Every structure is written in C-alpha cells, then in structure tokens.
C-alpha cells in the first residue's frame, strides 16, 4: 500500500522545517508514508511552486541522516553515536561524537515541535477515514494553528513543559533513519563543501571541550 510507512500502519510522510522558536517555517504534506525522506526533500527544494525557504549563502539547515549531504544542509556523522541519551553514561570520545551531540541538541527542536503538535492534535495520530485531500488539509491546519498558538498564547501548558525541559524529546519523535549511504552520484561534488564545514566545526568543538 502506498500510504503504509516504515512502521507498518498507513500514514503520510510530512517534511517540515522549523526555527529555534519552535515555529514551523515550511511543510510539505501529502506524500505517502512509504516515500523516502530524500525523495520528498529533493522534490521540495527543486519545485519553485512550493517556495521552499532555501538557506542564504553561508547558512545551513541541520538535517538528519535521511537527507542528502549537500550545500546548505548539514547532516551528522554516520555510524557514530548521536542521540542525547546515548551520551548519558559515557561522554563523547572524539571530535565526531562531540559534533553529533551538539547537532542532536540543536536539531531536537524539530522533534520537540512535532511532539507538541501531535500531543495537542490527537487527530493526527488517529486520522478518520476522510478523503486524502481532506486529511492533508487537516494536517496543514494543525501546523498553522501550532504556529498561531506559539506566537500568540501568553501561557500554553504544552509549550511550557517543553520550555522547562529543554533536553526533553518524546521517544516517538526520535528519528528511525538507518545509516543509508545516499550521498553519491550528483551529490558528491556539493557534499564535499559540507563535509569540510562539518569537520571544521567538529575540530573546533573538540578543542573547546
């Protein structure tokens, strides 16, 4: 089934970007759950009609390992400890692990934002059997309301909990991406620049530890 995702049940694969204030800055909804993250990503950045907010020169998005390693998008090191809970007992042992821990800490903002979104709008976890387009409209509305509440609510319990516990990430939101080597072919030339940036940041963080 097209809409049966990696977790076996029917679902959409929604691509989203957010800022550090936990407001979503871009969403692409409607892809079937079986669609790979990299496919959705490439469609989003290469489709002018979607108006994807590409990073300015010298800036970049923090993305997980499911995305191509190309200019403007910084992925973590593969086959290296990454999630915060993996460092609870033993701290980073090398520059790559220091980088990954910092990357995970900053990128957790998107996971926490999704956690608030799905906690508030239960319908997203158990969507009624509406038409596909109606379900997509509901998803988009949920994101829009999330942003409205974040920007305008004086006191919101869900956001307060997340703010008070900055390292908290709902377990359901931890990425389940495996270490696929998708960085090949047309990505090779552009990924070299980001690999150099990643290595430079890792070296600086390791020296500052």
TrEMBL record:
<keyword id="KW-0479">Metal-binding</keyword>
<comment type="similarity">
    <text>Belongs to the HARBI1 family.</text>
</comment>
<dbReference type="GO" id="GO:0046872">
    <property type="term" value="F:metal ion binding"/>
</dbReference>
<keyword id="KW-0378">Hydrolase</keyword>
<dbReference type="GO" id="GO:0016787">
    <property type="term" value="F:hydrolase activity"/>
</dbReference>
<feature type="domain" description="DDE Tnp4">
    <location>
        <begin position="2"/>
        <end position="147"/>
    </location>
</feature>
<keyword id="KW-0540">Nuclease</keyword>
<dbReference type="InterPro" id="IPR045249">
    <property type="entry name" value="HARBI1-like"/>
</dbReference>
<protein>
    <recommendedName>
        <fullName>DDE Tnp4 domain-containing protein</fullName>
    </recommendedName>
</protein>
<dbReference type="Pfam" id="PF13359">
    <property type="entry name" value="DDE_Tnp_4"/>
</dbReference>
<dbReference type="GO" id="GO:0004518">
    <property type="term" value="F:nuclease activity"/>
</dbReference>
<dbReference type="InterPro" id="IPR027806">
    <property type="entry name" value="HARBI1_dom"/>
</dbReference>
<dbReference type="GO" id="GO:0005634">
    <property type="term" value="C:nucleus"/>
</dbReference>
<keyword id="KW-0539">Nucleus</keyword>
């Amino acid at each position: 089934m097209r809409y049966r995702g990696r977790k076996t049940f029917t679902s959409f694969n929604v691509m989203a970007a957010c800022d550090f204030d936990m407001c979503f800055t871009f969403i692409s909804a409607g892809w079937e759950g079986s669609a790979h993250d990299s496919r959705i990503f490439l469609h989003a950045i290469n489709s002018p009609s979607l108006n994807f907010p590409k990073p300015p020169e010298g800036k970049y998005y923090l993305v997980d390992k499911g995305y191509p390693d190309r200019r403007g998008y910084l992925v973590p090191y593969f086959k290296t400890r990454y999630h915060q809970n993996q460092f609870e007992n033993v701290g980073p042992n090398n520059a790559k692990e220091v980088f990954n821990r910092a990357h995970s800490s900053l990128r957790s903002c998107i996971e926490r934002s999704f956690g608030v979104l799905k906690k508030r709008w239960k319908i997203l976890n158990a969507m009624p059997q509406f038409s596909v387009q109606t379900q997509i409209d509901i998803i988009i509305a949920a994101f829009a309301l999330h942003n409205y509440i974040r920007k305008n609510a004086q006191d919101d319990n869900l956001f307060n909990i997340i703010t008070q516990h900055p390292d908290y990430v709902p377990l359901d939101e931890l990425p389940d991406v495996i270490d696929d080597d998708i960085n090949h072919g047309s990505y090779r030339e552009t990924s070299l620049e980001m690999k150099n940036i990643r290595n430079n940041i890792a070296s600086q963080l390791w020296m500052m530890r």
